[in-house]
Amino acid sequence: MTTFQTEAGAVPPPDAVHPRDSSPDTPTSVSRLNETIRDFVQKWGAVWVEGEITAWNLRGGHVFGRLKDAAGDGLLSFRMWSSTLQRTPGDLKVGDRVVACVKADYFVKTGDFSFTVSAMRHTGLGDQLERLERLRSALRAEGLFDPARKKALPFLPHVIGLITGERSDAEKDVHRNAELRWPHVRFRTVHAAVQGDRCVPETLAALATLDADPEVDVIIIARGGGDPQSLLGFSDERLVRAVAAASTPVVSAIGHENDHPLLDEVADLRASTPTDAAKRVVPDVTEQRALVQQLRSRARTRLTQRVGHDIAALGQLRSRPVLRDPESMLTGRAQEVVALSSRGRDVMARRWDAAARATAELRASLRALSPGATLDRGYAIAHLPGGGIVRDAAQAPAGADVVVTVGRGSFAARSAGEIAETGADAASSAN
């Protein structure tokens, strides 16, 4: 960058100084000032104005004229290109009251300020626009414009339904751009009038036909822009409600930036142009292939890392002693098992001997206490016929039958009665 040397030091050239930073010592250039004004003016965008035509000069197919403010002395110079003039009512003339969509232009080279008209109509259309705004407010209050009710578009539609004018540029743009992005895309096109009295009924019929087709996944209603008068059909309440009730997602591709027909509000997606609609309805095959390749590469990397990690883990496991010689664990435990088995046999033998001795002692005790052992020593037991044991001589009076049990068997006997003590003593002495 070239600089100028002054007493205050290096000074940047005027082209490098922004107007807001200018001063007597660092002035800006005319070109830089004009560029700044142009950039500022371009931010205004399009504006609708109302006024009276005071000049209407046709030169080279273009119109250069002026609008006068009906409420004051304000004047506005405008120009209208031939392409716009073709869409403008042909009866416009000096003295007509009109509404116009104008956009400010500022020419850097000459410093001239002008307005370019993109649409113009008689003032009577303003009332119609007012009615449309009231309808817009009513439909919004009903929730027809609510984003929550809008349906999502399919990622890759099998068949795209297209409603547009016959042999129109919009149809060509949609087909060309969609096929560039996805060569195998399929369309089902229904032609309809895109302006005039036939616009609404034919568009409604086309929408019903495509919405009833189970193969159609998304419907595009396309038109290549136009003046507000020609777009009125796409703000018809019947069409708006039909689009809201459609089960198939609908894309509005009217392609008009200054006026938004009600179709843009109720459609599931608004595209700025038919070309934009084609780009947003089908994916880009190149991008999808790149994405697939990226995902495959990531999957390959992750799988390689996982296999490498598992191989390393398996190597660590195989390096452990127990896996190098699995029998060593059994060999080391074999002696312990033999010792435990021998110990178990010894313990069981000792417990068996102790139990045998205890059983013998119990058997001897039981045998000593057994009545049979007492009878073997010469004792006898006398039983009465009723089964009772004679414990007192009075229980067996003389002549009573008794059963006497001895060590080896039993025999019947008859009681001789109670023996006198003296007799017993005599018998004892005789013995």
From TrEMBL:
<dbReference type="GO" id="GO:0008855">
    <property type="term" value="F:exodeoxyribonuclease VII activity"/>
</dbReference>
<dbReference type="Pfam" id="PF13742">
    <property type="entry name" value="tRNA_anti_2"/>
</dbReference>
<dbReference type="GO" id="GO:0009318">
    <property type="term" value="C:exodeoxyribonuclease VII complex"/>
</dbReference>
<comment type="subunit">
    <text>Heterooligomer composed of large and small subunits.</text>
</comment>
<comment type="similarity">
    <text>Belongs to the XseA family.</text>
</comment>
<keyword id="KW-0269">Exonuclease</keyword>
<feature type="region of interest" description="Disordered">
    <location>
        <begin position="1"/>
        <end position="30"/>
    </location>
</feature>
<dbReference type="GO" id="GO:0005737">
    <property type="term" value="C:cytoplasm"/>
</dbReference>
<feature type="domain" description="Exonuclease VII large subunit C-terminal">
    <location>
        <begin position="144"/>
        <end position="361"/>
    </location>
</feature>
<dbReference type="GO" id="GO:0003676">
    <property type="term" value="F:nucleic acid binding"/>
</dbReference>
<keyword id="KW-0963">Cytoplasm</keyword>
<dbReference type="GO" id="GO:0006308">
    <property type="term" value="P:DNA catabolic process"/>
</dbReference>
<keyword id="KW-0540">Nuclease</keyword>
<dbReference type="Pfam" id="PF02601">
    <property type="entry name" value="Exonuc_VII_L"/>
</dbReference>
<feature type="domain" description="OB-fold nucleic acid binding">
    <location>
        <begin position="29"/>
        <end position="121"/>
    </location>
</feature>
<dbReference type="InterPro" id="IPR003753">
    <property type="entry name" value="Exonuc_VII_L"/>
</dbReference>
<keyword id="KW-0378">Hydrolase</keyword>
<comment type="function">
    <text>Bidirectionally degrades single-stranded DNA into large acid-insoluble oligonucleotides, which are then degraded further into small acid-soluble oligonucleotides.</text>
</comment>
<dbReference type="InterPro" id="IPR025824">
    <property type="entry name" value="OB-fold_nuc-bd_dom"/>
</dbReference>
<protein>
    <recommendedName>
        <fullName>Exodeoxyribonuclease 7 large subunit</fullName>
        <ecNumber>3.1.11.6</ecNumber>
    </recommendedName>
</protein>
<dbReference type="InterPro" id="IPR020579">
    <property type="entry name" value="Exonuc_VII_lsu_C"/>
</dbReference>
